[in-house]
Amino acid sequence: MLDFLFSGWGAFWVTMGMLLPFAGMFWYVIHRKSVPYSGPSNTPPAAMSRIEGFWLTAVFVISVALNLASLKFMPIIATAHAAAGGVPVQKIEFTATSWSYDMSSRQVEAGKPVLFSGRAKDTQHGFAVYHPDGRMLFTMLMMPGVSKPTSVVHTFTEPGTYKIRCLEYCGVAHHAMKDELIVVKNKDAT
């Protein structure tokens, strides 16, 4: 997808793309205010109101457009698309307890969506899945006493051994709360 936009140089250039227009406008305003002019302004108040209105409208439209464009990357939206897409979904249900995961399965097929559905039994726990190269793919937070489980749908693209770690401090043996998920080659793939 567009993962390169969220790490390394991609994230840097996205940040610059958002920062530079605002920096340019900041420089323009500071430059205009720093030039001494003792006479009255030549700009009629009505024109200044239109300029301010245009600037505020532009900022609002850009912010809304960026937020709408990013919606498809939200886990809840991906989960809804996977559930409505008619594609068979692999399910892994788990319970996080001090200091382990009780998982219904530890093996899934690459290329098929996986619905992770988890609960915390005793205290707050995390469920972070790491790619074999060390990149975090997603994380979940489970709280005890919540009526519905925390759920995320993720599709693994590559076979391998994926590490699972708790990222929420859950007690003295938090560092030992880890597991593995084996992703095997899709049987249907040719």
Describe the 3D structure:
By secondary structure, the protein is of the alpha+beta class. The chain has three domains: 1-33; 44-73; 76-184, Immunoglobulin-like. The chain contains three helices and nine strands. The strands form two sheets. A five-stranded mixed sheet has the order 3-9-8-5-6, with no helix packed on it. A four-stranded mixed sheet has the order 2-1-4-7. The longest helix has 27 residues, at 8-34. It is elongated and about 75 Å long.
Helices, strands, pairings?
Layout: H1 8-34, H2 45-70, H3 75-84, E1 90-97, E2 100-103, E3 107-109, E4 113-120, E5 125-130, E6 136-142, E7 150-155, E8 160-165, E9 178-184
Parallel strand pairs: 1-4, 3-9
Antiparallel strand pairs: 1-2, 4-7, 5-6, 5-8, 8-9
Q: What is the average of the pLDDT values?
A: 85
- General shape: elongated
The number of helical segments is 3
Based on secondary structure, the structural category is: alpha+beta
Strand content: 25-35%
Helix content: 25-40%
Give the second-level CATH assignment, the architecture of the largest domain.
Sandwich
CATH class of the largest domain: Mainly Beta
Key attributes of the depicted protein:
29% strand, 5-stranded mixed sheet, alpha+beta, 190 residues, 33% helix, Immunoglobulin-like
